[in-house]
TrEMBL record, chain A:
Leader sequence segment: none
Alphabetized InterPro entries for the sequence: CheC-like_sf (IPR028976), CheX-like (IPR038756), CheX-like_dom (IPR028051)
Pfam family, one: CheX
Keyword set includes Mitochondrion: no
Keywords: Chemotaxis
Domain Chemotaxis phosphatase CheX-like: 42-129
Species of origin: Heliobacterium mobile (Heliobacillus mobilis)
UniProt keyword annotation of Protein biosynthesis present: no
One BP term from GO: chemotaxis
SUPFAM superfamilies: CheC-like
Name of this protein: Chemotaxis protein CheX
From TrEMBL, chain B:
UniProt keyword S-adenosyl-L-methionine, yes or no: no
Swiss-Prot/TrEMBL GO biological process terms: phosphorelay signal transduction system
InterPro entries: CheY-like_superfamily, Sig_transdc_resp-reg_receiver, ST_Response_Regulator
Domain Response regulatory: 4-119
SMART domains linked: REC
SUPFAM superfamilies: CheY-like
The organism's taxonomic lineage, starting at the top: Bacteria, Bacillati, Bacillota, Clostridia, Eubacteriales
Full protein name: Stage 0 sporulation protein A homolog
TrEMBL record, chain C:
Domain of life: Bacteria
GO biological process: chemotaxis
Gene3D superfamilies hit by this protein: CheC-like
Keywords: Chemotaxis
Pfam family for this entry, one: CheX
InterPro entries (UniProt xref): CheC-like_sf, CheX-like, CheX-like_dom
Source species of the chain: Heliobacterium mobile (Heliobacillus mobilis)
Membrane spanning residue stretches: none
Residue stretches in coiled coil: none
Keyword Cytoplasm: no
Occurrences of domain Chemotaxis phosphatase CheX-like (ranges): 43-132
Protein name: Chemotaxis protein CheX
SUPFAM superfamilies associated with the record: CheC-like
Length: 158, 119, 156
């Protein structure tokens, strides 16, 4: 997977979370791996089907997840990750991925690669999880923000 | 002459399973391609007698790769081996002149009898 | 959720466990409407799909079932479900199960569904949830442990 496919997801993340008032967004160094090891409580993962196939996963700590949901709900305090909070995290994953595709990613995929769709997000809880989300490689990028770190894991089959 | 077969699949597990079956029955694995792009390169390099081709793969999928191979060499023998096999995919494969379409999973009999029909 | 949607998945699961891994899978009963949260038995694989509808198929295996399947398929023994080959086996089995099931659904109902690549994972005390989407599950028993198949469908 070429580097140029990574930045649409990072830019989309920045766009979406800055709309919720999150600041100090800094992208870390991308790392390429076959298996991704997650040690941060919560991962939201969704798929892409069509001419662009793959999975994208967003991982964060419970603390960051609560702050994210709180920010999405206009600052309402969030004590636990209940079903409303899970659905908000899923929605955020949807928004970021949808934003990445509709903005810059579709420009990169000019020509015949134009039909794709996003699948429903799953939310996975638990520590010390080993994931494989792509048969080729996964590019992981840590993103530090005012509410903590969000790791973006991209496994596109291109 | 031992028949030489090119394996194309994005799962290393499928390569292992096919290799075991083929070698047990006296065929040679000419090469292992993990996607359609590698398949095109290896096909040109190795001129295998037959290709086993998966469909959903990264970079270039199996239908595209089969199309490219058939256009370069219309007599090329290709067996599609895919987890998916709905009518739409089957008709696309047929239009490309694919010799046989097999749906996964497979056993030795399924693989060996398909090979006997094409080469 | 329409329980009929689970039938092709459960049939494919039983066929493929038997054919590929030589493991007999007995269902414990009929499919039931599941909670939003699935507590993982040990190793899980998710495949999502989209077309005229969208959804997710989950297989969740006791660690022993995953290790036994990997052993039967590859001929080698494994100690941990976190080993690459064990994860690869579960992932490819789910790929074939979902491919077979989706093929049937497409041919029967004209849904034009396409699969995303499989996701597979193993961890400690893992909980899987799919927000806002109804799911139906079937629990199953094998000689080496439990497994669960769960189908979630949402309108596109």
């Amino acid at each position: 997977m070429e580097d140029k496919y990574i930045s649409p997801f990072l830019e989309a993340l920045k766009n979406v979370i800055s709309q919720f008032g999150v600041t100090d967004i800094r992208f870390g160094k991308p790392e390429r791996k076959e298996t991704m090891h997650v040690d941060t409580d919560i991962t939201a993962v969704l798929g892409l089907v069509g001419n662009l196939r793959g999975n994208v996963a967003y991982s964060m700590s419970s603390e960051t997840a609560k702050k994210t949901v709180s920010a999405m709900m206009y600052g309402m305090p969030v004590e636990e990750i209940d079903s409303i909070a899970r659905s908000a995290i899923g929605e955020m994953a949807n928004m970021i991925t949808g934003n990445a595709i509709s903005s810059s990613l579709s420009l990169l995929l000019s020509g015949e690669k134009t039909t794709f769709d996003i699948t429903p997000p799953s939310i996975i809880f638990g520590k010390d999880i080993y994931f494989i989300i792509s048969s080729i490689e996964t590019v992981s990028v840590p993103v530090d923000t005012s509410i903590g770190r969000i790791e973006v894991n991209i496994g596109l089959e291109i | 002459m031992i028949k030489r077969i090119l394996l194309v699949d994005d799962s290393p597990l499928i390569h292992n399973l096919l290799r075991k079956t083929l070698e047990k029955h006296g065929y040679e694995v000419a090469g292992d391609a993990m996607n359609g792009k590698e398949a095109l390169e290896l096909f040109a390099q190795l001129s295998p007698d037959l290709v086993f081709m998966d469909i959903t793969m990264p970079i270039v999928d199996g239908l595209e790769a089969a199309k490219a191979i058939k256009s370069q060499q219309p007599t090329a023998k290709i067996i599609m081996l895919s987890a998916m096999g709905d009518e739409e995919i089957m008709s696309q494969a047929k239009a490309l002149g694919i010799d046989i379409f097999l749906q996964k999973p497979f056993d030795d009999y399924k693989i060996i009898s398909a090979i006997a029909k094409v080469i | 959720m329409d329980m009929r949607m689970t039938v092709p998945f459960v049939e494919a699961l039983q066929d493929i466990f038997k054919q590929m891994a030589m493991i007999e899978v007995q269902t414990d009963g009929d499919p039931f409407n599941d909670n939003e949260e699935v507590h993982s038995y040990g190793v899980s694989s998710i495949i999502t799909f989209a077309g005229k509808i969208k959804g997710r198929f989950l297989i969740d295996l006791d660690t022993q079932v995953a290790l036994q399947a990997a052993k039967n398929i590859t001929g080698s023994s494994y100690d941990s479900p976190k080993e690459q080959m064990v994860l690869a086996v579960v992932s490819e089995m789910n790929n074939i199960i979902s491919g077979n099931a989706i093929t049937k659904l497409n041919n029967e109902y004209g849904l034009s569904l396409r699969l995303a690549p499989p996701i597979v994972f193993a961890g400690t005390d893992v909980v899987i949830s799919i927000p806002k989407v109804a799911s139906a599950s079937v629990t199953c028993t094998t000689a080496c442990g439990k497994l669960k198949a769960s189908v979630a469908i949402s309108k596109a």
